[in-house]
Amino acid sequence: MKHKIFEQLKAIAYVVFLIVGGYMVASCSEKDEVSEFDNWRDRNQAFVDSIAHVAQTNADGSWEIIKAFNLGDDASLYQGMNNYFIYVKKLEVGTGTYSPMYVDSVRIHYIGRLIPTAQHPQGKAFGKSYSTNELNETTDVPTIFCVNQNLVVGISTALMHMHEGDRWLVYIPYYLGYGATDYTKGAIPAYSTLVYDLKLARIYRYKIDNDTAWH
Question: For 22, 81, 109, 160, which has the most beta carbons within 10 A of its beta carbon?
C-alpha cells in the first residue's frame, strides 16, 4: 500500500512539475539564472488551474472538488473560480462513519509542501508531523488540532469532509491558505499553493470525547 501511494504521489508530482516547470522556463527564458520563487504567483495559479483540470476530468474516480466551507452553500456562484475550492486526491479510505464538525478536535498525520520546483521536484516541505519525510504510523504521533483554530480554511474544509482513517492529498489555492502575504518569515511565500498529504487519525467530539491522549 505504501509503495502504491508513493508511486501515485510521484506520478502526480512529475506531471505537475512538467506543467509548472514549462511555464517557468517559458516566462524566464531570457534569464541565465532562475530563482526558485520567480513569477511565483503566476506559476502557482498555473499549478492550481492544472490540478483543477485533472480533478474535473477525474479519470480514475479518486478526485473530489470541495468548495471552501466559509463561502455559503451555493457552489454555482463560484463556478470557474478555481481559487475558491480545494482539490482532493483520495489515497486511502478509512473505516470511520462520521466527519468532524467545526467545533471538534482531531489528530492528523501530515506533511505540507509548496508546489514542485527545479530545486525541490516534490515540493519544498514547510511543516510535518512525521519524524522523517515519510509517514510511519507505528512510531509517528499525530498532531492534535481544533478544526476551527490555527488551521487555514483549506485544511478545515478538508477535515470536515473526511472520516477517521482517510488519507487525502489536498491541494489548497493561496486564497484558502496563507493568502497574499509571506508567512513564517517567507518560508511560505505570498500566493503559495499548499499541498498536504493528510491522514485523519482520530476525531474528538466537542464536550463528549474528553480524553485526547494518543493511545
Answer: 109
Whether residue 50 contacts residue 19, with contact meaning beta carbons closer than 8 Å, is answered with yes
3-class DSSP assignment, residue 52:
helix
SS3 for 65-83 is: EEECHHHCCCHHHHCCCHH
| Burial per residue of 5-40, b for 16 or more beta-carbon CB atoms within 10 angstroms, e otherwise | beeebeebbeebbebbeebbeeeeeeeeebeebebb
Grid coordinates given for 75:
457552489
Could you please state the CATH topology (level 3) that the domain comprising 2-204 is classified under: Chitinase A; domain 3 (3.10.50)
Give the contacts of 149 (CB within 8 A, at least 6 positions apart).
none
Q: Tens of pLDDT along the chain (215 residues)?
A: 555 555 655 556 555 555 555 554 444 444 445 689 999 999 999 999 999 999 999 999 999 999 999 998 888 889 889 999 999 999 999 999 999 999 999 999 999 999 999 999 999 999 999 999 899 999 999 999 999 999 999 999 999 999 999 999 999 999 999 999 999 888 999 999 999 999 999 999 999 999 999 97
Nearest one of 126, 123, 122, 90 to 4, comparing CA atoms:
90
8 Å CB contact between 174 and 115: no
User: What's the CA gap between 116 and 124, in Å, rounded?
Assistant: 7
How far is Cα 162 from Cα 110, in angstroms, rounded to an integer?
A: 14
Domain ranges of the chain: 2-204
